[in-house]
Specification:
It comes from Strongyloides ratti (Parasitic roundworm). Helices cover 58% and strands 6% of the residues. The N and C termini lie far apart (110 Å).
């Protein structure tokens, strides 16, 4: 009796203690959550005062006034920084771990069910809050407590499994599955949910095992069976949606391993998009629909039994992690725009859940894009603000308020939250150190490095946040243009990150109960490791010339440790590591011919005089013609051109040395003589290894790896004796305008050539015999290359010139910026001023274009001309044969022979001189070829006339409009990187002889267009027009309607048509004409999205066919690209700003041709659109500023 009473007393004591602890803990947790909710509502209230910019758009919007932007952003970040719920709950976490959990574990069979249930709910709610804020170590600790007490709790099980995926801990996942299997067997659970969970995650473990590649098809079959089971059950439950996520992750990785997969159906980016854009949001909707009015977790009641709250918060955390990974994959594949949109959505979500770690992670992801950072200063400032603001827990310092009184808290306390800051009155530090606390532009006070506060003495408990801070610091340091600092910062970042990761992993393994060495297992979390590995690979690939081979080896060793486990996220990074190693082993062979380098400039004595030539004519002509009343415009003009002149001077001085040939190394020709025997065998083996990586991973390869392959093989393909079609295929797939990875993830077309055989087949079977494709592209060392393709001739890939960084942006884009500014300003004054400015700009632009042509192309400009085939001319073939005998490739030999009518003897000798640095020959051969040129040039010219390739009265000074009057037409199709596309290549002097030029955005577009498009001539009677939709170009509207008299065209004027109506016309009409501002993309959006834009298009607006910006040379989808995805035959428009009067004259010539052709009705008299473009160039006053901006993208042989 006495023992029974004692036992009852003990149970009562445990019950009462647990009840008191749980009651207190629930109240404390609710109070902290509500406090956080108040701050979040304040943040949302701040953002709601920016109605023009929805949600988070104002964070990176350039158009907002700087002071307004800074005020709003600072207020948001200050409020976000006030959310310290994790610090407030640290005591509660300790209490749960040291008191509540032991009590539950010891008394779980005898404790009251009500308090038992509340205890479970408390622990897993706390775990969910930690998980939401990125504290996965603490979260898994809490969820494991629940799992150890009550392993049948399904909500806790799903949370643990999500953390296993986030942290990539397959050991923990295996352990949990074993425990789950025992639970199923012991308790004989009545529901099938546990069995399905066990089956799906067991497949996940197998898919990420060592034997996955051997069992690839078997595992794919297992996944298909599970998916079939889902589909057979009708509407899916929330659990069925949930477990589709690991299944899709498995499928992604297996498809990457399966070489038989074509990479188009269920592309890995599509599958990732399905997870983050469809599945996880659908699951969240299920949890929110009956529990919250707003899409924020703060509205949930966290008291009592709360499966929905815990599940929703866990899914929200998983959605953040998965969406960030997906965003980074979008970025890697070149889809910068989509990445930006996804990140902005996540910024809004991070504010709504009130999480600093999530916010900084997103900022770091955006910051990885060079294009976004370089073109949007807001992003750099935002990364700086967020990184440093979240490093400062005393928000009064950021708000520029007096600091609160110092708290008397021991520095030895592990949870000490006091932070000491330097001030001018602090005698313990030197006065100058105070300056390190302030940024003069942003006026925010931050910690200085190595200050003595408690926070800087101890690592934060959230080491993932510390890793994000380390990354943001590295990211900000990359703005320095000092190559040595980039190497140093990357090495320091790597060492600090790895130190932090090892600490984290030791704590993690201790928490989850693993026994192996933590350093063997290098993953802190998928996201953190993905960012770290991406940063190191980016640093090495973008600054390869500065990194020592030993440093590269050291950094890659650390990267390989992180990616050693089998995860689909790191598939491309494994390829990158391998390619970087192979590239560095070949680096000493990667030289280019001396002719590709610039001659040294005498900077001190000549450069200003050279630049004065560019601007003197325009300044003088304007100042002479303008009266005293126009003095202000003269002054503004002079100021603009002088600023531009000084910028060009500074840039050329800074970068000239980068373009000079290296000294002391083996040059191009000596190196090729040196490579023989065993060395050549070894080189070929390396090349084969790289080529094998290319062929086996083409379907999923990202931008970085394509760039690595291209830069590795371009310089050595000729030494290694690669087949010309192999290197041409690689160039096609790996250069900037290769859009395979972009389009294959958004459409059903196979937008890549899966093999050399397929690529060669497209060229030899579908390319027109009278058209030559010329592709110009830049490699990662700023060398301009040319590739030339023809169906009957082997490909030619050759380097043209070593340029300095951003050459075209500096020389060409700077002029365009001045042009746009002056044209707009002068247009607001008098007509006389306007035309004075325009004529002067025309002279300048002509001069600059010729300077660029001379510097970039030089004697090699003839390579831009199309091939001429003349097999029945003995003189032509003899000359080609002599060049081949001198070791010139057939492609070069025919190119020279085709250009003979347009070359003088001096031109020919200059070509031989420069090309000798690529194809060596002695002086005797050069003399012999020069003699042959003298004797055969006139005869070859005669044969070309007789064959119809030249006008019967050909002279070298004939105008281009006379050169097009040949019986036989031959065409050039230019394919250009986005940065090169603004330059008026059609105005290159050699094209005066072969002026029939079209463009295409990529070879894939061109090949598929030729294969799929059956249109070879247009019925211009079957046309539709959209004229002056904005209503502010009345003169242009009247001019066009007058031209259209007696023509059977349909259309609309003075208003915007409905996109649905336009979609109908774009699929039925032969021609669509848009005359207005820009390219009218907004009205074509449905036709483009549904790929139903089948009409030829004329877009008569400023920059209507300007290609969009790019990242590292890799273009993203724009109007022109989207148009050709829809299989349209051709699009005519302008690449830059044009004036309405001049451009109207150009297009009037085109429209009159339509009229004449319709009257004639004879198809034999129809000409190509490029023919009429050449004629139209003669009708305008400004040949470069107007005619040179009009380009045609499409089939060059398209008849009108």
């Amino acid at each position: 009796m006495k023992n029974t009473t004692s036992s009852s007393s003990k149970i009562k004591t445990a019950h009462d203690k647990l009840s008191e602890l749980v009651l207190y803990a629930n109240k404390h947790m609710k109070d902290q959550w509500n406090a956080k909710t108040v701050v979040i509502k304040k943040i949302l209230n701040i953002t709601s005062h920016c109605p023009i910019y929805k949600d988070a758009l104002f964070f990176i919007e350039n158009d907002i006034d700087n002071e307004v932007w800074l005020d709003v952003v600072k207020r948001c970040l200050v409020e976000l920084n006030k959310i310290n719920i994790i610090q407030k709950l640290e005591g509660l976490y300790t209490t749960v771990k040291s008191e509540i959990f032991p009590l539950l574990l010891q008394n779980k069979d005898s404790i009251d069910k009500n308090i038992y249930g509340k205890s479970i709910a408390l622990i897993r709610t706390l775990g969910a809050i930690y998980m939401l804020h990125g504290y996965y170590k603490e979260a898994i600790d809490l969820f494991k407590m629940v799992f150890d007490i009550f392993s049948r709790d399904f909500t806790t099980l799903t949370c643990i499994l999500k953390i296993c995926i986030i942290t990539n801990d397959l050991c923990l996942l295996t352990k949990i599955l074993n425990e789950l299997n025992r639970t199923i067997q012991n308790y004989k659970l009545p529901t099938k949910n546990y069995l399905i969970i066990y089956k799906v995650y067991s497949i996940y473990v197998e898919c990420h095992g060592i034997s996955a590649k051997e069992n690839c098809q078997k595992l794919l079959d297992s996944i298909s069976k599970v998916e079939a089971e889902f589909n057979s059950k009708g509407p899916l439950s929330i659990m069925m949606y949930d477990i589709q996520v690991p299944l899709l992750l498995c499928k992604i990785y297996l498809k990457m391993l399966d070489n038989e997969d074509d990479g188009i159906t269920d592309n890995y980016l599509k599958l990732r998009a399905k997870i983050s854009d469809k599945l996880l949001p659908s699951i969240l909707y299920y949890y929110y629909k009956n529990s919250a009015t707003n899409n924020v977790p703060m509205d949930f009641d966290i008291n009592g039994k709360n499966d929905n709250f815990v599940s929703a918060v866990a899914v929200t955390s998983f959605l953040f992690e998965e969406s960030l990974l997906y965003s980074r994959m979008l970025q890697d594949s070149g889809r910068i725009k989509e990445c930006n949109i996804k990140c902005l959505q996540l910024v809004t979500s991070a504010l709504r859940v009130g999480c600093q770690y999530r916010f900084l992670s997103i900022m770091n992801t955006i910051g990885m894009s060079d294009f976004l950072v370089n073109n949007n200063p807001r992003i750099y400032d935002l990364i700086y603000l967020s990184s440093n603001t979240f490093d400062n827990q005393d928000t009064s310092q950021i708000e520029n308020k007096p600091p609160s009184p110092n708290k008397n808290i021991s520095e030895d306390s592990i949870y000490d939250s006091s932070y000491d800051y330097l001030s001018a009155s602090d005698d313990s530090f030197e006065k100058f150190e105070c300056g390190n606390l302030f940024n003069s532009t942003l006026n925010v006070k931050f910690h200085r490095n190595l200050c003595r506060c408690q926070r800087c003495k101890n690592f934060s408990s959230n080491k993932l946040m510390e890793q994000e801070r380390l990354f943001s610091k590295w990211l900000l340091e990359q703005k320095k243009n000092n190559s040595s600092s980039i190497v140093e910062s990357s090495v320091n970042y790597s060492e600090s990150w790895c130190e932090m990761t090892n600490l984290y992993n030791k704590e993690w393994w201790k928490t989850v109960g693993h026994t192996s060495e933590s350093t063997v297992y290098g993953i802190a979390s998928k996201n953190s490791s993905y960012l770290f590995c991406g940063a190191i690979i980016k640093a090495i690939t973008t600054s390869s010339g500065q990194f020592d081979s030993q440093i590269v080896k050291s950094l890659l060793k650390k990267v390989r440790l992180q990616i050693s486990v089998f995860c689909s996220e790191f598939h491309n990074m494994k390829i990158s590591c391998s390619l970087i190693c192979k590239k560095y082993s070949l680096r000493s062979y990667m030289v280019i011919p001396n002719s590709c380098y610039a001659s040294p400039l005498n900077i001190m004595n000549g450069i200003e005089l050279v630049l004065d030539e560019i601007i003197s004519a325009e300044v003088n002509s304007i100042t002479k013609e303008l009266s005293k009343n126009d003095a202000a415009i003269v002054k503004a003009f002079n100021k603009t051109v002088n600023i531009n002149k000084q910028a060009v001077i500074d840039y050329i001085i800074a970068f000239n040395n980068l373009r000079l040939s290296p000294t002391g190394d083996l040059n191009y020709l000596n190196l090729r003589k040196y490579c023989n025997g065993k060395l050549l065998v070894m080189l070929k083996e390396k090349v084969k290894e790289i080529f094998d990586i290319f062929t086996s991973n083409l379907r999923f390869m990202d931008v970085t790896n394509k760039k690595l392959i291209l830069s590795s093989l371009l310089r050595i393909y000729d030494i290694a004796e690669m087949d010309e079609w192999d290197i041409a295929w690689i160039v096609t797939e790996c250069t900037g305008i290769a859009t395979r990875s972009l389009i294959s993830s958004t459409g059903s077309f196979n937008y890549y050539f899966s093999s050399r055989k397929e690529f060669k087949s497209h060229v030899t079977n579908y390319f027109p015999t009278n058209s030559t494709v010329v592709q110009l592209f830049m490699d990662d060392d700023n060398v301009l290359w040319l590739m030339k393709l023809h169906r009957n001739i082997k490909p030619l890939v050759i380097p043209l010139k070593k340029l300095h960084a951003n050459y075209f942006n500096t020389i060409h884009q700077k002029f365009l910026d001045v042009h746009d500014k002056l044209t707009k300003e002068s247009g607001q004054v008098s007509g006389r001023v306007f035309w004075s400015v325009r004529y002067s700009l025309e002279d300048s632009y002509k001069y600059i274009c010729k300077k660029i042509q001379s510097e970039v192309l030089g004697s090699m400009a003839f390579l831009l001309l199309p091939y001429t085939e003349l097999p029945f001319s003995s003189c032509f073939m003899s000359f080609v044969g002599a060049l081949e005998k001198a070791n010139y490739p057939t492609s070069v030999a025919i190119s020279i022979a085709s250009a003979i009518p347009f070359l003088t003897l001096s031109d020919f000798q200059n070509i031989l001189k420069d090309i000798t640095t690529i194809y060596p020959m002695n002086s005797q051969i050069i003399q012999s070829l020069s003699s042959l040129f003298k004797s055969l040039s006139s005869k070859i010219t005669r044969d070309l006339k007789n064959a119809g390739y030249l006008p019967s009265k050909f002279l070298r000074n004939l105008a281009s409009s006379q050169m097009i009057e040949c019986p036989k037409e031959i065409f050039t199709t230019l394919i250009l990187d986005n940065e090169l596309s603004l330059y008026p290549w059609e105005m290159v002097s050699f094209f005066n002889y072969r002026p029939m030029i079209a463009r295409m955005p990529s070879i894939m577009n061109y090949a598929l267009l030729l294969k799929n498009n059956v249109i070879n001539k247009l019925n211009t009677d079957n046309s539709y027009y959209i004229i002056n939709p904005k209503g502010d170009l009345k003169d242009t509207e009247d001019w066009m309607l007058n031209l259209l008299k007696n023509m059977k065209w349909e259309g609309i004027k003075g208003q915007w048509p409905q996109p649905e109506i336009v979609k109908e016309f774009t699929s039925k009409k032969d021609l669509l004409v848009y005359i207005g501002h820009g390219n009218g993309k907004q009205v074509f959006r449905i036709a483009l999205k549904e790929q139903k834009f089948r009409s030829a298009a004329i877009l008569m607006g400023c920059s209507s066919v300007k290609l969009g910006p790019s990242s590292n040379g890799y273009s993203h989808l724009d109007m022109v690209e989207n148009y050709f995805i829809s299989s349209g035959p051709g699009i005519l428009g302008c690449t830059m700003l044009v004036t309405d009067g001049e451009i109207n004259k150009f297009f009037e010539c085109i429209f009159k041709a339509f009229k004449n052709n319709n009257k004639d009705g004879n198809d034999k008299n129809k000409k190509t659109i490029t023919y009429y473009m050449v004629q139209a160039r003669e009708s305008v006053r400004l040949r470069y500023l107007t005619a040179g901006t009009v380009v045609f993208y499409g089939i060059p042989t398209l008849l009108l």
